[in-house]
Amino acid sequence: MEHMIWNPTMECMPREQLRSFQDGRLRDIVRRVYENVPFYRHKMQGRGLMPGDIHGVADIELLPFTEKQDLRNNYPFSLFAVPLSEVVRVHASSGTTGKPTVVGYTSGDIDRWAELMARSMYCANVSKGDIVQIAYGYGLFTGGLGAHYGAERVGAVVVPISGGNTTRQLMLLQDFGATALCCTPSYALNLAEALERDGIKETKLKCGIFGAEPWTESMREKIEDMLHIDALNIYGLSEVMGPGVSMECMCKQGMHIWEDHFLPEIIGPDGKGLPYGEQGDLTFTTLSKHGMPLLRYRTHDLCTLTDEPCACGRTHVRMGRIMGRTDDMLIIRGVNVFPSQIEHALLQVKGIQPQYQIVVERKNLLDTLEVQVELSPENMSDTVRELEALERKIADSIASHALVSAKIKLCQPGSLPRSEGKAKRVVDNRKL
Question: What is the pLDDT of residue 406?
Answer without folding.
Answer: 95
